[in-house]
Specification:
Elements: E1 2-3, E2 10-11, H1 28-40, H2 44-56, H3 79-86, H4 109-130, H5 137-159, H6 167-189, H7 199-221, H8 229-259, H9 261-274, H10 279-297, H11 308-325, H12 337-366
Antiparallel strand pairs: 1-2
Helix pairs in contact: 2-12, 4-5, 5-8, 5-9, 6-7, 6-8, 7-8, 7-10, 7-11, 8-9, 8-10, 10-11, 10-12, 11-12
Length: 367
């Protein structure tokens, strides 16, 4: 015996409409089956994205709106527009909850930051290469190593729809948090340091470095008045950007001593090219994971590091980092196939987390 989903009256087998209210009969078993098929019988990419969306914990359909990250880059913008982005997060410039936009942000300032760094790098290169001035060499290494991490960090600043974290806090987190995460990582490496980047050594490196960054992200999140997913992404990105920038500067200097000018320049360009899919985005995912776990428990404490919600997300950067450093990176190494693939995957996770962050805005405004 079937029952009407609208009025609850019994419906004889074979009837297409409810005799009481006239609502068409819906076969719930068939409907559920069709829903499952529509979710899984489409393209393998769509099914894969759905699984990733579920794993991350998003209860809404995934919207991988990556094109919107570039739509406003080519448009003309004024200095005043840039200044409005940079003066966020103060007592006078933080918008109220109901003024926060729940639509996808249209970032563009990050591209201008990249151009400023690129111009400065080119001028320093002229000093070093054409005029043989060694005094410009430290600046060349620093600017070259900081260009892409800072650019990516500004992108995350623009993606924070809440506009509640100031540039002062971001720079402080970048400098202090980046250096502190290096110290935390070296401290952990003092207990165990892989001597070879085989599969075991690579994944241990991933665990140690991502743990070191996550611990520092946690301490900065503790100081935030309001925890949000988008804010967690930004604070995590700031720590990761600092880690990446200082590490790249160190690699550049080491390779200058070992291999000379050309090798150093290759290292700066290569690490800059690969930076958007590395430490910055990995730490951002960990930051969002800590916030999600903290909001589930209505508190932020060290217990979050053992929470399933955090660990599910934290596992992503650990695995990505491990694969990045492992022998698997040799596959298609001429085209950097594995790092590029890992970068795409990491940003898919970030886009899903941005979905969740914007949904959080809607839920907060609806209260």
């Amino acid at each position: 015996m079937k029952y009407c989903s609208n009025c609850g009256k019994p419906i004889e087998d074979g009837y297409l409409f409810c005799g009481n209210c006239g609502k068409p009969v819906v076969d719930e078993t068939s409907s559920a089956k069709q829903h499952t098929q529509s979710k899984h019988s489409g393209s393998s990419d769509s099914s894969w994205v759905n699984h990733l969306n579920d794993y991350v914990g998003n209860d809404r359909p995934a919207d991988l709106n990556w094109k919107i990250l570039f739509t406003d880059v080519a448009k003309k913008h004024t200095t005043e527009e840039a200044e409005e982005i940079f003066i966020v997060g103060t007592r006078k410039t933080t918008p109220s909850v109901y003024e926060v936009s729940k639509d996808w942000p249209h970032p563009w300032l990050y591209s201008r930051v990249f151009l400023m760094f690129a111009v400065a790098f080119a001028l320093l290169w002229v000093c070093c290469s054409m005029f043989q001035n060694p005094n410009a060499l430290p600046g060349l290494i620093v600017v070259g190593s900081f260009t892409v991490p800072m650019t990516t960090l500004i992108l995350f600043l623009e993606l924070n729809a809440w506009r509640n974290i100031s540039v002062y806090e971001v720079i402080k987190t970048f400098l202090v948090g980046g250096c502190a995460s290096l110290v935390a990582t070296l401290f952990l490496f003092s207990f165990f340091e892989p001597h070879e980047l085989n599969f075991f050594g690579a994944f241990m490196t991933g665990i140690i470095e991502e743990t070191g960054k996550a611990v520092i992200v946690y301490f900065f999140l503790r100081k935030m008045g309001k925890l949000t997913i988008l804010g967690g992404l930004l604070i995590g990105a700031a720590v990761g950007a600092g880690f990446a920038a200082f590490e790249s500067a160190g690699y550049a200097m080491n390779f200058l001593f070992r291999g000379g000018w050309d090798v150093m320049m290759n290292v700066i360009f290569l690490r800059g090219f690969l930076t958007p899919g590395g430490h910055v985005v990995w730490a951002a995912i960990s930051g969002a994971g800590l916030v999600i776990a903290a909001k589930a428990h209505s508190e932020i404490s060290t217990n979050l590091f053992f929470d399933a919600k955090f660990l599910r997300l934290f596992l992503i950067p650990v695995v990505l980092h491990g694969i990045w450093d492992s022998p698997l990176s040799a596959i298609g190494s001429e085209m950097y196939l594995v790092p590029i693939g890992l970068t795409v995957f990491a940003w898919m996770v970030v886009l899903i987390l941005i979905n969740m962050g914007l949904a959080e805005v809607s839920k907060t405004q609806a209260k």
